[in-house]
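Quick one: structure for this chain?
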Amino acid sequence: MKINNLFIITLVTLLIISCTSDDDNDILESITYPSFGSEIEVAINGLSFDAMEPFVSPDSNYLFFNNINDGINTKLYYATKINDSTFNYEGELIGTNQITPPHLDAVADMDINGNFYWTSTRNYPTELNNLFQGTFNEGNVIDIERVQGDFNMNIPGWLVMDHGISLDGQFLYFSNARFDDANCQGPCETKLGIAQKNNDSTFSTLSNSISILQNINNANYIYYAPCISSDNLELYYTRYLKGEITSSTVFEICVAVRSNSLLEFSIPKVLFSETISNLIEAPTLTVDKNIMYYHRKTSGSHKIIMRYRNPY
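Got it. Here's what it folds into:
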């Protein structure tokens, strides 16, 4: 298993075909889903390279992102807010990034208490737990440690590919992915799950995680980049159908909803989809749920995009 190829393929992959039965369409029509307006390109003043996998801090003052996700020299960076669509580039996020390539530090995430999470290939595969946690403070992440728990598969080839922490820090939405370069193009399989916090560095999978996500997980799809809304009622993610990479490859940003944080999520709805040449992925929401950010592939680069939420 090659770590650099593994993450490239994870984020530049395959074909999605959206299929729903008539019954599913009836259910979709009976559920109120969020919708969003037109795209607005986000300006990061002073940035001269790709920006991918955005995350906005709970106070909305910081935009975190990583550069091109090639698994060779992938690092985390941050910018400070001027307005909703304009940020000033500040530099690397100190404390999170490895020095010697090949390496990957990516997928920023943070709760309201400043507990910062990210995916890292530090010492992989000697150590299989690849989700890290630290404390964020004005451009630095300190007190770094691996996140422990039964959500880690601890099997060579399996990784926590992506993750999303709830605003209060109590629930971790994770995407486990199995890689086998000899037999699969990209992840062989993935599954979304939910774990609850035991302490600052340990989470345990909910006993009803499978039932909560039963309308979402489907063995025919690859799932990644989960994001849970601040009220725990809307789950956003990216998916694609397993298959060969072609010029018609399509990515889908989806949402599933529920009326109570103890209930299962609904059948998902596709919000946006694009072919691989203009791929979109990794949605994230502001705390007030009024803005969605994600990244889009443009001519020769990847840019962060935003959309305002439409009123119901």
